[in-house]
């Protein structure tokens, strides 16, 4: 973390003044400052987002590296789904679970109906 310094701020104009010994060669220059409390809040939020990103990355890595055994696709999918739900519950960044998608079964025309010859 960056070092902080104590300073006085005018409640009227906002001027900042820090306790430094002037050696007579000072010149004023523009600087950009943030309040230490705002920096601490931002660093805290950053740590939370990094933890969430790491958890999501771990879930994606597991999903990408998992090949279910024959006949275990649904079980594997449900397990991953439960892990994703738990992850979303631990990191509530949205207003709830994503909308449920309806499953569609696509049957090729050649299999869907028999052709009469």
Structure commentary:
The protein is mainly alpha-helical. It has a domain at 8-68 and 75-90. The chain has 3 helices and 2 strands, in the order ββααα. A two-stranded antiparallel ribbon has the order 1-2. A hairpin with a 6-residue loop joins β1 (8-9) and β2 (16-17). The longest helix is centred in the middle third of the chain and has 30 residues, at 36-65. The radius of gyration is 29 Å and the shape is rod-shaped. It starts with 7 loop residues before the first strand and ends in a 5-residue tail after the last helix.
N-to-C order of helices and strands: EEHHH
Rounded mean pLDDT score: 77
* Secondary structure: helix percent: 40-55%
- Unreliable stretches covering 5 or more consecutive residues: 110-117
Structural category: mainly alpha
Order the strands across the largest sheet as they lie in space: 1-2
Strand content: under 5%
Distance between the termini: 79 Å
Number of helices: 3
Radius of gyration over all CA atoms, rounded: 29 Å
Give a quick account of the main beta sheet: strands, pairing sense, barrel closure: 2 strands, antiparallel
Coarse shape: rod-shaped
Question: Using DSSP, what is the number of strands?
Answer: 2
């Amino acid at each position: 973390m960056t070092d902080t310094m104590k300073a006085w701020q005018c409640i009227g104009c906002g001027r900042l003044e820090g306790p430094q010994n002037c050696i007579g060669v000072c010149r004023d220059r523009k600087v950009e400052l943030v309040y230490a409390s705002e920096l601490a809040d931002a660093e805290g939020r950053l740590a939370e987002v990094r933890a969430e990103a790491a958890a999501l990355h771990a879930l994606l890595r597991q999903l990408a590296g998992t090949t279910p055994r024959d006949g275990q696709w649904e079980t594997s999918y449900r397990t991953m789904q439960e892990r994703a739900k738990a992850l979303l519950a631990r990191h509530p960044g949205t207003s709830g679970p994503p909308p449920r998608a309806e499953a569609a079964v696509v049957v090729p025309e050649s299999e869907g109906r028999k052709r009469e010859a």
